[in-house]
Amino acid sequence: MIRYDKNSLKAEEFINDGEILDSLKFADENKNNLELVDKIIEKARLKKGINHREASVLLACEDKERIKEIYNLARQIKKDFYGDRIVMFAPLYLSNYCVNGCVYCPYHAKNKHICRKKLTQDEVRKEVIALQDMGHKRLAIEAGEDPVNNPIEYILDCIKTIYSVNHRNGAIRRVNVNIAATTVENYKKLKEAGIGTYILFQETYNKKSYEQLHPTGPKHNYNYHTEAMDRAMQGGIDDVGIGVLFGLELYRYELAGLLMHAEHLEAVHGVGPHTISVPRIKAADDINPDDFDNGIDDETFAKIVAIIRIAVPYTGMIISTRESESVRKKVLELGISQISGGSRTSVGGYDEPESEEENSAQFDVSDNRSLDEVVRWLMNLGYIPSFCTACYREGRTGDRFMSLCKSGQIQNCCHPNALMTLEEYLVDYASNDTRNVGQKLIEQELEKIPNEKVRTIAKEHIFDIRNNNKRDF
Ligand code: SAM
């Protein structure tokens, strides 16, 4: 079994190819060892997680009864740690200029016909206003890697602009950042700019494949990319989001790598990843997902989500509009805690949807519904869409967030906060239909707050939001 060494932040040590292959071999040898599978499921029932080796066995196991148990446990853990709350966010594409050669991404430098765009600060403002008009409070900014067109100063300017726009009760309260791996110095600057989570997908943990899939540009450097989260944490960012792009490599390899990465971060920095994203490759400008051999079907995808949920109960899980409504519905109950809504993956696409000819989008979106439709759909499924960013704004990030989560106390503060931010959304932005569904739901949910004092305060605040134009409690 691998030991994570606090003094070694070298990629090849914490994402050890030999250890991953050994875990997969162990999983193959034990996938029908139902005694062991049951033991792992029993361990998972303690809700303290399981390691990459144990997760690999569950992923390899094909016993129908056991898979059902895994799904039921994932549902239970999801309910216990996150309740019915689903955090809402939207991606904001700043620039698709990119010097890398990633073979699965239409932003690759050799793509000469995609429309290259970079938002000016005025355009950023317009995008934010359009997003605020929809009701968003939490964004994930996205950009290609290009030191000349998108240097860190540009990203910092954009963050400043985003936080400065306050339109229709609408300040963006949390900006998460998905930009290429960078230096400790730059991570410090991002921290100072007040970012939420720093997100970087590993794409694949398999070094050989990684180098082939990223043949040119700074992203080719596997070690630099893989060690980025350690640099981010050294730079003071304590919420980091990891993920792989499913379809590039064998999914069993990726799950083991992903969990080893989480184990490494927890062992070395005392806090695991804040979120895990599970994107799958999508069709895009000159990209055909069928050109990649490792695509996974919806059932396998659901199983991966369920196993991540039980392996790292305290880590949020994100699903984007890459997935369809039906897939999103299935994985929401198995472990997803954050979803995007009303997303545009083109640069400048919120203020002015673009024509087909000027396509600047990163990938085709499978869920094209508006935020209002997604919010109503979630509520009709019994979820509470949450626009809450209180933890981040109160400084409850990193280990402070994790210890709150582990203590079980998160339920007592998150539930009323979610209801209050939902009420704000309903009053300020929702259609009549959505508001009616939502306000009924809020009335029912208020009664579920166990602590009487908290329940009374939440009711007063909801009353004030609805009737006295008060906000942001
Ligand atoms: N440029 C940054 C970097 O290098 O990490 C990140 C920004 S990129 C806009 C965000 C993510 O989109 C990538 O990390 C990749 O996983 C994903 N992506 C790229 N091409 C995709 C495709 N064809 N389908 C689905 N996701 C894709």
From TrEMBL:
The protein in question is named: [FeFe] hydrogenase H-cluster radical SAM maturase HydG
Q: Cofactor(s) for this protein?
A: [4Fe-4S] cluster
- UniProt cross-references to SUPFAM superfamilies, sorted A to Z: Radical SAM enzymes (SSF102114)
Q: Which Gene3D superfamilies match?
A: Aldolase class I
Task: Say yes or no: keyword rRNA-binding present.
Answer: no
The gene name on file is: hydG
Q: Map out region (Disordered) in residue numbers.
A: 342-365
Kindly name one Pfam family recorded for this protein: BATS
